[in-house]
Amino acid sequence: MSWRVETLNRTVDSELESLPADMRARFLHIAELLETFGPFHVGMLDVKPRGCSCVREEDTEDAGAGSSCRVPARQGGSMSALSTLKKKWRREHEFRNAYDDLRPEFAIARQFIAARQRAGLSQAMVASRMGTTQSVVARLESGNRLPAMRSLQRYAAAIGCRMDVRLKPVAPAQTRPRLGQ
Fold first, then answer.
1. Based on the domain organization, do 131 and 89 belong to the same domain?
2. Phi (first) and psi of residue 154, to 5 degrees
3. Based on CB atoms within 10 Å of each CB, which residue in 132, 137, 139, 171 is the most buried?
4. What is the reported pLDDT for 77?
5. Are 47 and 72 in the same domain?
6. Are 63 and 132 found together in one domain?
């Protein structure tokens, strides 16, 4: 089974396109988490369509068999995959920079969700083991902010892992000057 994030219609596409590059980059990272893990494992969101987008489960035998999207497309519109917007956005320098800047935060979110999934634990179960609430675990997995090292260690212990932080050299050609430097 795989998941696909879709927008409801062209009106929604234009609303997404009107967002600043950093917000579109964050939206795309979250959409990619949803497509990778599905809405039931990405507990950082209440995946309740609000007239913007939906997450659809695809099965090769019965495409569209499951869906967390219960809102029909507006009249005159039809759902479309986010892939068209992705291609367009990735041609924009500002978007690519914003997307790349968010990559480390979402890489941590991706690792956390995958590790929790492998451990067979829900966010509530991890929260109980950490002595905190499910919403705290959701924030740790959200990719919205880099969590404190202590929080990362507590999360790792709760899912039966240990933290291993490494610094890797970056080739000069891979570095990009950042604003303000």
1. no
2. -65, -40
3. 137
4. 46
5. yes
6. no
Nearest residue to 31 (alpha-carbon basis) of 122, 143, 146, 138: 143
Q: Looking at the structure, do residues 86 and 121 belong to the same domain, yes or no?
A: no
User: What SS3 class is residue 159?
Assistant: coil
3 state SS of 30: helix
Residue 174, in any domain of the structure: no
Q: Which range of residues forms the domain containing residue 130?
A: 104-166
List helix spans (H) across 38-92: 83-90
Which range of 75-84, 85-94, 143-152 scores highest in mean pLDDT? It is 85-94
Asked if residue 71 lies in contact with residue 54, where contact means CB atoms within 8 angstroms, the answer is yes
Helix residue spans in the chain (DSSP H): 10-17, 21-37, 83-90, 93-119, 123-130, 134-141, 149-158
Q: How many domains does the structure of the chain reveal?
A: 2
Residue 124 CA from chain centroid, whole number: 19
Average pLDDT, the chain: 78
Question: Higher model confidence: residue 153 or residue 81?
Answer: 153
pLDDT at 174: 61
130-156 per-position pLDDT tens digit: 999 998 998 888 877 778 889 989 999
